[in-house]
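Figure 2 data, in text form.
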Amino acid sequence: MTRRQPAQQLTPAGQRLLDTASALFYRHGIRAVGVDAIAEAAGTTKKTLYDRFGSKDALVALYLSRRFERWREFVAAYLDEHAPAPGPRRVLAVYDALAEWQRDAERGCAFVNAFAEIGGTDHPGVAVIQAEKETVRELYVRLVAEAGVPPARAAELGLRLALLHEGALVTMTAGGRPDALTHARAAAADLLATALDRQAS
């Protein structure tokens, strides 16, 4: 295993290290968790960690990449199950998927949390965080276009819906408002209805 290989090719020890690091990074923060603590909790050695991942920064980036991929898979499956047809319901189902995803995520958005620690640096995890946020925006743009909003308007509306999505994530935790996603979804429904009404008239 080299540090260039993807997570699915990890050895059992490497997978254990990644799983352990992922839980610790999310629960305690990236800077607060050292490689010694990760290795000890995973029942392996610091040398094994460096052999598998090359550096702590690379391990952090892989943690974020794997979480990003799992979120993408989760929301795609949720939409296909709960709102398979294009339309407003499918757009709003992203908020429902997010609520389900965050049900046991007591510290909110892992990407926002990570950016608070590594943003403004050359850390390889920053690109992963930015890609995740851009993917959320692109998802809303695509779904609202599929719902019937013209492309030029879809770009603007998709951005606004993504901002509601991201703002609700922060407000749920930092703002102490567990109902933030409910309000974000309602605001998104209003924006979407207005856009579709304008298109129909």
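Caption note: The two ends are 59 Å apart (CA to CA).
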